[in-house]
Specification:
Helix content: under 10%
Number of strands: 9
Structural class: mainly beta
Largest sheet: 3 strands, antiparallel
Radius of gyration: 21 Å
Order of helices and strands: HEEEEEEEEE
Strand order of the largest sheet: 1-2-3
Length: about 110
C-alpha cells in the first residue's frame, strides 16, 4: 500500500477498540497490521472508489527475472551543442506471480 492508505488504516480499530496498526518500536522494526509486516510503495494507488489499494499475502511467490548485463549507448550528437555527452542505459527485467492464490488484493468500493 502507499503512504496515504497507511494513514487511513492507522485510524482503524478492531472489535475490542484496539488499533490494528502497531508501529515498529525500534529503529530496525517494521510496522505491522494485526501482526503482519507492512511495506509501502508509491506504485500502489491511493484509496478511492474502484482502486486496488492493498496487496496482502506471501510475496515470495512474486518472482523477478533479471537478465544479465546492462546496455549503454553514448549520445554524442544530442548534447554536442552544450559540450556534453549523454548516456542511455537499458536493462531487461520481468516479473510474474507464480502462485496467484498466495496474494489477495483489496479493491475499494
Amino acid at each position: 500500500m502507499n503512504d496515504a492508505t497507511v494513514n487511513m488504516i492507522r485510524k482503524l480499530k478492531d472489535g475490542n477498540g484496539q488499533y490494528i496498526w502497531e508501529p515498529g518500536i525500534k529503529s530496525n522494526d517494521t510496522d505491522t497490521i494485526l501482526g503482519r509486516k507492512v511495506y509501502t510503495t508509491t506504485c500502489m494507488p491511493t484509496a478511492k472508489t474502484g482502486a486496488k489499494t492493498v496487496a496482502f499475502g506471501d510475496m515470495s511467490f512474486y518472482w523477478i527475472g533479471d537478465r544479465e548485463g546492462i546496455s549503454f549507448k553514448r549520445l554524442n550528437e544530442l548534447y554536442a551543442t552544450k559540450g556534453q555527452v549523454g548516456f542511455l542505459a537499458t536493462k531487461r527485467l520481468d516479473a510474474r506471480l507464480i502462485l496467484p492464490e498466495t496474494i489477495k488484493v483489496l479493491k475499494m468500493k
